[in-house]
Design goal:
The chain has about 325 residues and is an alpha/beta fold. It contains eleven helices and 14 strands. A six-stranded mixed β-sheet has the order 6-7-8-3-9-10, with helices on both faces. A four-stranded antiparallel β-sheet has the order 2-1-4-5. Strands 12-13-11-14 form a four-stranded antiparallel β-sheet, sandwiched between helices.
Length: about 325
């Protein structure tokens, strides 16, 4: 690796109380985290949760209001140019020139990233192969499928062999099959030691990441593996109820002393009971047999967001 590089024990990303304020609005609120080299980390949360602002600070595009961050060993505020030279970035807008061909887009980005001329041909060929676009080199980018444009944009972002790649909502508007193919490529990149950070609001995508950073209201609620989050984030026993008038029943169910939480989950309701034995009381109250279920990432997020809101209310109150 050029320059200082990473010490074996040094994280690819490290932040401490990273904060960004716009006027009176706190977009990112004291985020502290570490992401390892070669990790695929999903930034999960709704629009406005702070994911993109964190990524922009880590890329050296936006200066933190307070706190600190290091990417590949470089300080995000003082050494942003060194970071920019070593990263790949792809947004949901795909950053392509739609009136250029596949080959022309890759050639342009190879030049932007300063690839030596003797390397360009080989890297362009590798990116075309990675993107599954062999035989379509002269196709106009605008005429590719959404999945094809997405994979071409990724090729443009990683043509310089970056050590870290930031993908900001890269699969919006792409079919489920296209999203799965894309994630296979991402995981292959990570197996080669590339750190990948992908912002998404798709729970199934986040579940394929090594770890997930849950964001809400500018705060980092949790950073852990999908399995560990599902196993430890819910305080209580989760059951599913199928009721014909489910939405109208939420308030009544939540008012029961043995219920911690009740939320819609598709056409059903997910109810967190204080303990498994409370299924008897819930069955008596609703007239429906509760079915124990394994928590989903959506259940985890709802529980974490509610806990965060309650803590803020206690702090502000």
């Amino acid at each position: 690796m050029n320059g200082r590089g990473l010490m074996p024990s040094e994280p690819a990303v490290e932040t401490r109380d990273l904060t960004r304020v716009f006027g009176g609005f706190t977009a990112v609120d004291r985020v502290t985290m570490q992401i390892s080299k070669g990790e695929v980390c999903g930034f999960l949360g709704p629009n406005g949760a702070g994911k993109t602002t964190v990524i922009r600070m880590l890329c050296g595009i936006l200066e933190p209001t307070s706190g600190s961050g290091r990417v590949l060993g470089y300080d995000v505020a003082r050494e942003s140019e060194q970071i920019k030279r070593r990263l790949g970035y792809m947004s949901q807008k795909f950053s392509l020139y739609n009136d250029l061909t596949v080959q022309e887009n890759l050639t342009f980005y190879a030049g932007i990233y300063g690839l030596p001329p003797r390397e360009r041909g080989r890297r362009i060929a590798e990116m075309i192969d990675m993107a599954g676009l062999a035989g379509q080199e002269q196709a106009i980018a605008a005429n590719l499928s959404s999945g094809g444009r997405q994979r071409l944009a990724l090729g443009c972002a990683i043509i310089s062999r970056p050590s870290i790649v930031f993908l900001d909502e890269p699969t919006s508007g792409v079919s489920p099959t296209g999203r799965q193919t894309f994630f296979n490529i991402i995981q292959n990149l990570a197996s080669q030691g590339v750190t990948v950070i992908v912002a998404t609001h798709f729970m199934d995508e986040a579940g394929r990441c090594g770890r997930i950073a849950f964001f809400s209201g500018g705060q980092l609620l949790a950073l852990d593996s999908p399995g560990h989050l599902k196993a430890t984030s819910l305080e209580g026993f989760l059951v599913e109820l199928e009721l014909p008038d489910s939405m109208a029943r939420i308030a009544g169910i939540e008012s029961q002393p043995y219920v911690r939480e009740c939320s819609p989950h598709g056409v059903a309701l997910h109810v967190i009971l204080k303990e498994e034995a409370d299924m008897i009381a819930l069955r008596a109250f609703t007239g429906v047999e509760p079915k124990p279920v394994t928590p989903s990432l959506e259940d985890v997020f709802i529980a974490l967001a509610k806990k965060s809101r309650m803590e803020r209310q206690e702090h502000d109150g």
